């Protein structure tokens, strides 16, 4: 039989992670529990041998140079696309932009209002879809934590394959999937849980034109993150933090 | 154009993140159980970290980087060695290391090798908390952030991992004492 504390608190104590009150409590317990004393001794010697064994392995000498080189070349690549443009062209381009802005401005609010109206509409659809999904019975068409149930469910309903993965071990358990309509086309909605909140991730193939959804923002208390990867557009929306949404999107795009 | 950071950003990255390169490599090496693979994955993860650097909201740069490294490692394992993710205890590690590699044979019978193999036989989720805690000296809070688990889970995961490690170590010592040749190098344990 093992003392229950030796399986839990003891490790917090060993690591100096208990608050003073609990540490004191545990020390009092130690006075009367031979099992915990023995276990603590064993754990201390295990730690000592782990630390004296020099298991830490440093990066090989050339790695840092390789990384810097790769970062530099990635940067140079994106710089190259623009560096061939001579200065006078930049001036011409800037002048053109100034003229365009002026025309748009002088042309009245209509043009700007039109664009931001569309922007609003596309974003509003995403938010509405999210809110609608939270109404009773609307969250999922296929409720399953198993990606192997959810993924095939989309077969034949969409002309693309959404990346469905259960991310429970990363703190985003898959809740299910749903078919939704955004901007007049059918899209996959993947539903994930985060503590007691739900996250909708809408996924659809890149349309080729500039999206009108801003990369991130908050409206009505809902936060969204929009991004593109591997030919797909992703829009994650929820009332969880932007950091959570960012993590989830990143995981889905791996 | 989106990937380009200001040159100041690059300098900031080299100052804040690059110094944790050893931590990144060590973590990857233990998760992947291979120096060569760890080198590739670390490089990939560092470049990825650079791309995401604008999303870094300040704070603990090491934990932030190790989180990216961890993701890269699990993705790599899923693609290349998915069996690692489902193996509860890797018995074969004992034989594998002592028999096959001349490098391992050279350092056989030494304490480091013995511990290394014990640690490597644990499932990745146990191994990672031990490496972060004992080798990298991370706090529970940092481990929670790196492994994306609640802080309360860290203590119980560590407890279980240490228990497992103890079992593996006592098992191999026990067998060697009983005269069963577990390891071909015949090292004294």
Low-confidence region ranges of chain B = 1-5, 95-100, 175-189
Radius of gyration of chain A: 27 Å
The CATH top-level class label of the largest domain in chain B: Mainly Alpha
Pair with the most extensive interface?
A: A-B, 44 and 51 residues
Radius of gyration of chain B, in angstroms, nearest whole number: 18 Å
By DSSP (H or I, 4+ residues per run), the number of helices of chain B equals 11
Principal-axis shape of chain A equals extended
Which percent band covers the strand fraction of chain B?
under 5%
User: Would you report the number of β strands of chain A?
Assistant: 7
CATH topology of the largest domain in chain A: the name is Phosphorylase Kinase, domain 1
CATH architecture of the largest domain in chain B: Orthogonal Bundle
Uncertain residue ranges of chain A: 109-115
- Lateral strand order in the biggest sheet of chain A: 1-2-3-4-7-6-5
Characterize the overall form of chain B: globular
Write the CATH homologous superfamily of the largest domain in chain A: MucB/RseB, C-terminal domain
What count of structural domains of chain B?
A: 2
Terminal Cα span of chain B = 58 Å
Strand % of chain A is 15-25%
Helical residue percent band of chain B: over 70%
Q: Helix- and strand-based class of chain B?
A: mainly alpha
Describe this structure in words.
The complex is a heterodimer of chains A (254) and B (189). By secondary structure, chain A is of the alpha+beta class. Chain A folds into 2 domains: 4-52, no CATH class; 120-252, 2-Layer Sandwich (Phosphorylase Kinase, domain 1). Chain A has helices at 9-14, 20-32, 34-52, 63-83, 87-106, 109-134, 147-153, 242-252; strands spanning 142-143, 174-182, 185-194, 197-205, 216-219, 222-229, 232-238. In chain A, a hairpin with a 2-residue loop joins strand 6 (222-229) and strand 7. The longest helix of chain A has 26 residues, at 109-134. Chain A starts with 8 loop residues before the first helix and ends with a helix. With 189 residues, chain B is mainly α. Chain B folds into 2 domains: 1-86, Rna Polymerase Sigma Factor, Chain: A; 88-189, Arc Repressor Mutant, subunit A (Orthogonal Bundle). Chain B is globular and about 55 Å long. The N and C termini of chain B lie far apart (58 Å). Mean pLDDT of chain B is 81; it is low at 1-5, 95-100 and 175-189. At the A-B interface, helix 1, helix 3, helix 4 and helix 8 of A face helix 1, helix 2, helix 3, helix 8 and helix 9 of B.
